[in-house]
Amino acid sequence: LRIERGGVATSGTDYRRWQHGDSFNHHLIDPGTGMPSRSDVLAATVIAPNVLQAEAAAKALVILGSTAGLDWLEARPALAGVLVTQIGEIIYSQRMDEYLWRWK
């Protein structure tokens, strides 16, 4: 990543998880259900004006899922991000290209 100022945070369900019966639970709680989120997003990284906004946005993306999360992210011009889905798909927001280092 190439950033001059701001904050970067990653949140996901691949760490801080445990097995309960036949399924895995994790620490990101969906406020609508009160249970660990069950979205298709494994991890999200967000660039924001500060680290607090980046952390909150990354958690929101994991909970919202890839479709609603990307729509939410694109509606916020101060944010850019990357989503990694449970099946390994990598989804970049439109503004993320501003921050990616490209070898020339």
Explain the overall architecture.
The protein has helices at 51-64, 66-74; strands at residues 7-12, 17-20, 23-26, 29-30, 35-36, 41-48, 80-85, 90-92. With 104 residues, it is α+β, with helices and mostly antiparallel strands. It has a 4-stranded antiparallel β-sheet, covered by helices on one side. Strands 2-3 form a two-stranded antiparallel ribbon. Helix 1 (51-64) packs antiparallel against helix 2 (66-74). The protein is elongated, with a radius of gyration of 14 Å.
Name the descriptors.
single chain, 104 residues, alpha+beta, four-stranded antiparallel sheet, two-stranded antiparallel sheet, 2 helices, 8 strands
Low-confidence region ranges: none
* Average residue pLDDT: 89
Q: Tally of extended strands?
A: 8
* Multimer state: single chain
Residue share in helix:
10-25%
Q: How would you sum up the global shape?
A: elongated
Please give the alpha-carbon distance between the first and last residues: 15 Å
N-to-C order of helices and strands: EEEEEEHHEE
